[in-house]
Design goal:
21 helices, alpha/beta, Glutaredoxin, Ubiquitin-like (UB roll)
Length: about 500
């Protein structure tokens, strides 16, 4: 009898030696004459346990980790293929507290299916959303997305249904669907994990968006630093094309490699890049929903947003709407990174507190020292002190304290961090990544580094100039690159003034 073993092919697991582990399992199985099938699944997001090996048994999938190549002979000797006892045995994977306490909806197939197999995707519930969407009128699909309360998961949190309705009602043709997979925020990796672990879910979401707005072509814009995701998506797009034709869905997807610029994560700069020009921000209006790619109406959503759509169509709008709080409906895959003991992916409904993520899932700091600050929402997000850790993970609750949830990236710092240095980094990052189109961002970021250097050298008179500069950037910049750079700077100054003395 053939035993199936799962060894992640996710980029994070590969960086930790997953290929060597898979090769060692294959060698040891051959040496022992054991019939095994190795599936390179996606990572489940428990990064401190990678490489995480799972074996399919009659009582479910049993996990072992973290496994090194040199551990493999002893694992086989202990009865790995039967789920035997070993010091690395973690037990049934779904019972691990880190996973059991989550509510995985958009990522529920990641780590479970073979991401290279369309058949496996369909066998695990894939395709039901598209099948239902095909029986609806475009306006009914849009209505379902609107009723679900789904908001863009890329940072702006704009209601997806309103954006789709605008494109549907636009008279110009052709129309396009663009997936923004230029995931460049610090501490974020949920897009990458989904693209590498469940690519067909994203493709299905894009196809449903095409049906909803009348688009027959889509573009998947993936950052160049994600070669494994790009390869996985290209293979999945090719495999899905005949399936879409069988479903009578006229929708073709092209994968585009990003231009290596952080600012191309801004939707209009991304459109410029897809059209073959330098990634620079466009002035708005017109909005991309009216005049976007090639000047035509365009739906632009990020990976998690589009991958959320199939479940909404398959299960009904209430499946999303019934989770969360206030206007923040559904779940969000949060990503724990930085100085954190248990870094990884945590998909939970909106409404939990930041402290619950940091303590109940993250286990506190990896160094063992007290957590002093947390940056939420990428390099342009505010720094939150411990006094704000009880804030609910909710778009409006974060906005009320001058912060943003962004893409759900959370980077933790212990009490050894120099917050003045972190503020300087925000300006330096903006200076390096600015597209250069507007003066407040292009020049203000450079001046900001200079002001910070004088301030850190002891010139406290620079604080007033620093605040004035941030005000100019916030209200004068063309896009979020410049207008949000003051967030980390001013939050560091306001909450940790002692570091600026």
């Amino acid at each position: 009898m053939t035993t199936t073993l799962y060894v992640p092919g996710d980029a994070a697991a590969l960086a930790l030696g997953a290929d060597a582990v898979a090769a060692a399992i294959d060698r040891e199985a051959r040496r022992r004459g054991s019939e095994v099938r190795i599936v390179r699944n996606g990572s489940r997001g428990l990064f401190w346990l990678e490489p995480l090996v799972e074996v399919a048994t009659s009582s479910g999938r049993i996990a072992y980790g973290p496994v090194a190549a040199e551990d493999v002979p002893a694992l086989f000797a202990a009865g790995l293929i039967d789920g035997g006892d070993h010091r690395l045995r973690l037990g049934p994977i779904e019972r691990l507290p880190y996973l059991a306490r989550q509510r995985r909806i958009v990522t529920h197939r990641v780590g479970i299916v073979d991401p290279g197999s369309l058949g496996d995707y369909l066998a695990h519930g894939g395709g039901r959303g598209l099948e239902h969407a095909r029986r609806l009128r475009p306006a009914e699909i849009v209505e379902a997305v609107t009723d679900s309360g789904l908001r863009g998961r890329g940072g702006a949190a704009f209601p997806a249904g309103i954006k789709w309705r605008t494109v549907l009602d636009a008279a110009a043709t052709p129309k396009y669907v663009v997936c923004n997979a230029d995931e460049g925020d610090s501490g974020t990796y949920s897009d990458r994990m989904l693209m590498e672990g469940d690519p067909f879910g994203l493709i299905e979401g894009m196809a449903i968006a095409g049906l909803a707005v009348g688009a027959t072509r889509g573009y998947l814009y993936v950052r160049s630093e994600y070669p494994h995701a790009i390869a996985r998506l290209e293979a999945a797009v090719a495999a899905a094309a005949p399936w879409l034709r069988e479903q009578s869905v006229d929708f073709a997807i092209e994968v585009r490699k990003g231009a290596g610029s952080y600012v191309c994560g801004e939707e209009t700069a991304m459109l410029e890049s897809i059209e073959g020009r330098r990634g620079q921000v466009r002035a708005k209006p017109p909005l991309p929903a009216v005049a976007g790619l090639f000047g035509r109406p365009t739906v632009i959503n990020n990976v998690i947003t589009l991958a959320s759509v199939p479940a909404i169509l398959a299960e009904g709008a209430a499946g999303c709407r019934d989770h969360g709080v206030g206007r923040s409906r559904g779940t969000l895959p949060f990503q724990l990174a930085g100085n954190i003991r248990y870094g990884g992916l945590v998909e939970v409904p909106f409404g939990l507190s930041l402290r619950q993520l940091l303590d109940d899932f993250g286990g506190g700091s990896r160094s063992g020292r007290p957590l002093r600050a947390v940056q939420v929402g990428g390099p342009l997000g505010a720094y939150l002190p411990a006094s704000q850790f009880d804030t609910a993970l909710d778009y409006e609750a974060f906005a009320a304290i001058g912060a943003t949830l962004g893409h759900g990236g959370i980077v933790a710092f212990d009490d050894s961090v120099d917050m003045a240095r972190q503020a300087r980094y925000a300006f330096a990052f903006c200076a390096a990544e600015s597209c250069g189109k507007c003066t407040p961002c292009r020049i203000g970021s450079v001046r900001g580094v200079e002001v910070m250097d004088r301030l850190r050298a002891g010139d406290s008179s620079q604080i007033e100039l620093l605040r004035s500069l941030c005000d100019t950037m916030r209200h004068g910049s063309l896009c979020a690159m410049g207008s949000m750079t003051p967030n980390p700077v001013l939050s560091a100054l306001d909450h940790f003034p002692e570091d600026f003395a």
